[in-house]
Amino acid sequence: MDNREDSGAAAEVDAEKSSGSSNPDSDDEAGASGQSEMDFLRNLFSRTLGLGSEKPEKVLDELTLEGVSRFMQSEKCKKVVCMVGAGISTAAGIPDFRSPGTGLYANLQQYNLPYPEAIFEISYFKQHPEPFFALARELYPGQFKPTVCHYFIRLLKEKGLLLRCYTQNIDTLERVAGLDQEDLVEAHGTFFTSHCISSSCRKEYKLDWMKERIFSSLIPKCEKCQSVVKPDIVFFGENLPSRFFSLMQADFRNVDLLIILGTSLQVQPFASLVSRVPTNTPRLLINKEKTGESDPFMSLMGFGCGMDFDSEKAYRDVAWLGDCDEGCLALAELLGWKKELEKLVREEHAAIDAKSSQAVGDRAGASGAPSKVAKQPASPKKQCPPGSEEE
């Protein structure tokens, strides 16, 4: 869910050394042998410290949202990677983690935790699963609708520009918005599937099975061995999915534009992805505040994000500060997509509302109670109000 340095850093180094894999889509190749350690170190220092590299070419005519939009409309931009965090889902009503007063970590007192992050620690979960499942009832996928940001990424796909969306979120709203599994790297896992936590069992369970138990206030227990069943989200102390490490090799070598939405870039190894793009690749940040700027110590360790928005050497990084939905609408307007995006949001939200009303009617009919909800046409909701915050 949050900071995974414990296991992620070592795994990223292993993946970097395996970047010679011929088939980046295979999850099994994350640990394959590739570059030698010397090659890895040479590339690492070249990337993070600029040693031995040529002077980067400036590809944006100006470091503004307008400059990014013109680049996107040019022949130079054919592959876009999006990196997204909790800030793109706050407009849907899902709290982010760190916002003072409203963030998830600021509102966990009711669970009597030793410290807020314990609710997402695997060791604590194995001993005390109750707080997590109580929280899961509030945050469970299916109770929220995707935001403007989610549908903007969907438009990138429909326009043939989206190479991949790397998400830190576990709310599955990217899937609800119309992205397929192939379009996604769910870096911190997903509620979409669950597994028994027993290493000798690992029986898999689907979304509906888990949902039924969570909303019945039951601790999900494996039907085979009676161990606790956990959604496939990444807790502290767990490795990130192998798909993250295998796909990032090719994706971040071949990207033409990186768009970063609603993330604090404080979570490793996810945050380090921004430094993996080629030196000439523009990077656009849409967020409440500037983030991901260079930190000398983290750069030396290989986790330097290296974003540079304001110095005299700045040549490719653009920051649009404000609500993520507003930023996506502003970019869509510059691209000539705004009306199309707003229409997509209205139609998709109306379809979700209609499906929800039908489900309520079906449940009422099954119980023998008359249902007025199912007979009433669903009224399309207005475009999601902006309200995204950084993760």
Automatic annotation (TrEMBL):
This protein's UniProt keywords: Cell cycle, Cell division, Cell membrane, Cell projection, Chromosome, Cytoplasm, Cytoskeleton, Membrane, Metal-binding, Microtubule, Mitosis, NAD, Nucleus, Phosphoprotein, Transferase, Ubl conjugation, Zinc
Gene3D superfamilies noted in UniProt: SIR2/SIRT2 'Small Domain, TPP-binding domain
Record-linked InterPro entries: DHS-like_NAD/FAD-binding_dom, NAD-dep_sirtuin_deacylases, Sirtuin, Sirtuin_cat_small_dom_sf, Ssirtuin_cat_dom
Necessary cofactors: Zn(2+)
Ranges for domain Deacetylase sirtuin-type: 58-338
GO cellular component term of the entry, any: growth cone
Pfam family, one: SIR2
Keyword Cell division: yes
UniProt-annotated location(s): Cell projection, Growth cone; Chromosome; Cytoplasm, Cytoskeleton, Microtubule organizing center, Centrosome; Cytoplasm, Cytoskeleton, Spindle
Binding-site list for Zn(2+): 196, 201, 222, 225
Assigned protein family: Belongs to the sirtuin family. Class I subfamily.
The protein's name in its UniProt record: NAD-dependent protein deacetylase sirtuin-2
Organism of provenance: Eublepharis macularius (Leopard gecko)
Gene from which this protein is expressed: SIRT2
